[in-house]
Design goal:
single chain, 281 residues, alpha+beta, two-stranded antiparallel ribbon, 7 strands, elongated
């Protein structure tokens, strides 16, 4: 990785900081670390990180493991109290700490600063996850050329989304995932207008991105697009308040319709035998 020592000024010196798997040799080295060797960890702002410590275990690892490493490689371990719901291994359940290791070839700076720098790389994983949600996780074809064009569009969309978060989005939308950003901002209808030699982007007052969402309606648009109220006709009372206000006509009561009663026959039905006798049958 470091070619400056071989090629002089024309060489290049590359510094790296990558994750290192916590395997059985690493666990054995952690068990040999005395309590006084752990140093307090720092966060990205340089403040003390509570319940977190760091230590270097390069010299405690087996020589057979370090023989194949690049020159100047170091292994640093961080331990911290696990958050609620974290899954711990059997080794971590023994003392209640959660361990994470990383490898670096940086020789300058304290262990706490190197560990804080490595932890700041988590944003790279976030960008990869965002790119996967934007199409990186699915290629549309088996043809290499089509997938190459698709990958270029995904990279372009990721760059535009990053600049949009940095320059234009409010604080409430900067941390949104792509799906929420499409629903609350990108897919919201808006109008591009011109006024006083300037361009204005007018969006609905109420919508998915507003604090009080409501169904879309004509009233949701800015007042400049709302219809102007019609002027009310002035009366003699408005011109001279001393005149009595005009009386409104009272509603004429409706006359109820008479109820039509149904006639019910009360006569006893004739017996068929009496009918035959009477008719002479």
């Amino acid at each position: 990785m470091n070619t400056a020592a071989v090629h002089g000024r024309r060489g290049r010196s590359v510094e790296y900081s990558v994750g290192f798997a916590v395997t059985e040799p690493v666990r054995d080295a952690i068990a040999l670390v005395p309590k006084s060797a752990w140093a307090t960890a720092l966060d990205a702002d340089g403040e003390v990180r509570e319940h977190a410590d760091v230590v270097e275990i390069t010299g405690l690892l087996p020589t057979s493991l370090r023989q194949g490493w690049p020159a100047g490689m170091r292994v640093i371990v961080r331990r911290e109290h696990p958050h609620p719901g974290a899954q711990l291994s059997l080794f971590e359940q023994g003392d209640g700490w959660r361990y994470q290791a990383f490898a670096t070839n940086t020789t300058t700076g304290g262990l706490a600063l190197l560990e804080a720098r490595h932890r700041a790389h988590a944003r790279v994983e976030d960008r990869i996850r965002v790119a996967k949600d934007s199409g990186l996780g699915r290629f549309p074809s088996r043809e290499y050329g089509i997938n190459q064009a698709w990958l270029s569009l995904v990279a372009l969309a990721a760059d535009l989304t990053s600049w949009l978060r940095l320059l234009a989005l409010p604080d409430a939308l900067k941390d949104c995932e792509p799906k929420a950003l499409r629903y609350r901002f990108l897919h919201v209808p808006a109008r591009l207008t011109r006024s006083a030699r300037r361009r204005h982007l007018d969006s609905p007052r109420h919508g998915p991105g507003s604090p009080t969402p409501s169904p879309p309606s004509p009233r949701s648009w800015p007042s400049r697009y709302a219809p102007e109220p019609q002027p009310r006709t002035l009366t003699a009372h408005d011109q001279d308040p001393r005149r009595p206000a005009p009386q409104r006509h009272a509603a004429i009561p409706r006359t109820p319709k008479p109820v039509q009663r149904q006639r019910v026959s009360t006569s006893t039905p004739r017996s068929p035998i009496r009918t035959l006798v009477k008719d002479g049958g």
